Amino acid sequence: MIIPTNLPLKLTSSRAWRTYLGGKLLDTFYGRPHPEDSHFPEEWISSLVLARNAGREDIKEGQSHLADQPELSLKEVIETDPSAFLGADHFSRYKADLGVLIKLIDAGERLTIQVHPDRDTAQRLFNSPYGKTECWHILGGRTINKQKPCIYLGFKEGITRAHWKALFQKQDIPGMLSALHRFEVKAGDTILIQGGVPHAIGLGCWLVEIQEPTDYTIRIERTTPAGFKIADAMCHQGLGFEHMFDCFHYEGVPRKEAQKRWFLSPVQEPAVPGGLITHLIRYEDTPFFRMDQLETTGRLEVKLPPVFSSLVFIAGEGTLTAHGKILPVKQGDQFFIPARTGSFTLTNSEEKPLQALHCFGPRV
């Protein structure tokens, strides 16, 4: 197996089973016939991670594979020469691990209220170097049952561990929801969800999620809004019902402070010939990942640092060129960009702009 370490690698689609329903907009995004909601509401991008699902332990799903050699996983390819594919500085710190996971998510129902551990808690409880701080960039959504897309994020003031545990024991879902801030969201919003902060994606949200590369999800609801019973292990992830409450940060904040703290403001890179580069998530916001939006109506050259990155095209058609190799691209295509690529060029071929999200791993 000889895979160039300086050329973009096109990846297969990789849907993952989840407890909640969704995915209709994902089907539409990929132009698939008869779009519908199912238990496959997520597309995992440039993924080396296997999904964790009770009862599906023998099913390997979530990992990305090469589009032209689908028998090869991206994980297997990177492990042949991780320093070259990921970058020497990244490899010296993280070995053959990307340190990041990207997902496209279409929520056909509200997700269960949940939390993910921060890094210190993940190390202590799961023996994991990664927690699961994440960020949502809203691509759009749909109105369902007359409800606009929304999210729930962060405790209101005055919520204690004892009160939160009592709500769980009674399965008082309205009480749980009322303990969190609720925000309606729209295309272009970018929201940071730090480890330890309780949250839930509301029904109708269509978004890209970038996160630390784990699937540790503590669920506070025993049944999904659609009525799917959640296994105990899917609630406490093996910690037990007492210790799972160690994963929450019981710091309540006023609504304005929550919005100021967790809703990020985009920063546009000035004077970019041929298009726009907008920094949606910067390392100043979190050291765990970075995400830019690339847009061009003509030709846009993107200079790269000596680290890997990932591309997912969210609109338009055109080409991706690196080291003389020209690859056709369209909405839904995803690519792993090795650290030795150096630069690439996007060329638009339609009247509407060619748009891509450009994602990076942790700061090195």
Helix and strand layout, with pairings?
Layout: E1 9-10, E2 15-16, H1 24-29, E3 42-45, H2 74-80, H3 82-86, H4 88-94, E4 101-106, E5 114-115, H5 119-126, E6 134-141, E7 150-155, H6 161-170, H7 173-178, E8 180-184, E9 190-193, E10 199-201, E11 205-211, E12 218-219, H8 232-236, H9 255-262, E13 267-268, E14 276-281, E15 290-296, E16 299-303, E17 309-315, E18 317-322, E19 325-330, E20 334-337, E21 343-348, E22 354-360
Antiparallel strand pairs: 1-20, 2-3, 3-4, 4-11, 5-12, 6-9, 6-11, 7-8, 7-10, 13-14, 14-15, 15-22, 16-21, 17-20, 17-22, 18-19, 18-21
Describe the structure.
The protein has about 375 residues and is of the alpha+beta class. It contains nine helices and 22 strands. The protein has helices spanning about 25-30, 75-80, 80-85, 90-95, 120-125, 160-170, 175-180, 230-235, 255-260; strands at about 10, 15, 40-45, 100-105, 115, 135-140, 150-155, 180-185, 190-195, 200, 205-210, 220, 265-270, 275-280, 290-295, 300-305, 310-315, 315-320, 325-330, 335, 345-350, 355-360. It has a seven-stranded antiparallel sheet, with no helix packed on it. Strands 2-3-4-11-6-9 form a six-stranded antiparallel sheet. The longest helix is centred in the middle third of the chain and has 10 residues, at about 160-170. The two termini are about 30 Å apart.
Comma- or semicolon-separated keywords:
single chain; 364 residues; alpha+beta; six-stranded antiparallel sheet; 9 helices; 22 strands; 17% helix
Give the averaged pLDDT, no decimals.
Answer: 96
Beta-strand percentage range: 25-35%
Major sheet: arrangement of strands: 1-20-17-22-15-14-13
Overall, the morphology is globular
Number of strands: 22
Low-confidence stretches: none
